[in-house]
Amino acid sequence: MAAKDLLRQIVVISAFCFMIVAAMVGTGLFGGTAVQDLQNGALDADGSYLAPARSAFSIWSVIYVGLFAYSVWQAFPRQRSRTRQRALGWLIAGTMVLNGLWLVTAQFATLPLTVLAIVLLLALLGVTFRRAVVQPGRGWIDALLIDGVTGLHLGWVTLATVANTTAWLTTIVPADADESATLWGILVLIVVAVIGVAIAWASHWRIAPGLAMAWGLVWIGVGRLAFEPESTAIGVTAIIVAVIVIAVPLVGTVLHRAADVRNAEV
Description:
- By secondary structure, the protein is an all-alpha fold.
- 75% of the residues lie in helices and 0% in strands.
- It contains 8 helices and no strands.
- Helix 3 packs antiparallel against helix 4, helix 5 (139-172) packs parallel to helix 7 and helix 7 (208-226) runs antiparallel to helix 8.
- It is flat and about 60 Å long.
């Protein structure tokens, strides 16, 4: 078992290294196409009505730093045989590999394949976060580097999947469909609100997923209110949904802790 645990630690570190190299390749740092120009600009901030403004993507820096910290921490000898690391290490490694593969796909493959890649990443993140919830850790490091980082990753990729899929659909729908884009955009954002609330409830009011989703939603709002394609209705809806997906877990946490205090007093 010790050899398998050591192998897991090595695989996690290797997966992180792959993700970073793939990100460099996928973003054009080695001479390829810049991210905003990938897929003929479909993935840029003006590629669709649900694309966030470019500043939103700075959240990747936070996620990458978090995953780096996790990769180093999980490699400590004391973490090697922990039950929680055994349950989650392989899954987190898988999310990092798929994260890197999405950028490589965006650089070298087709737009539909980017949708497939990000849906697979979203599915694995959902499984990983769910397992983190049902197998809670101990202490703030566990909470930050597993629940927090995975939650941010899940929340952002949830919204990125919507943006990526919308970018693809925008390239294949008839030109006259632009007339109904506002309605469809609002409906999709309502679905995002439902998903955000569902994630908060299923994760016992963990805040990280909603925080990442709210960040992206605010920048969708900024994109539609200040940049092209302009849509005041979508922009305002995005900001309202951002408030919902962060307020629900915050209120849920407060109510849950108040209930614990009342139970302790009984």
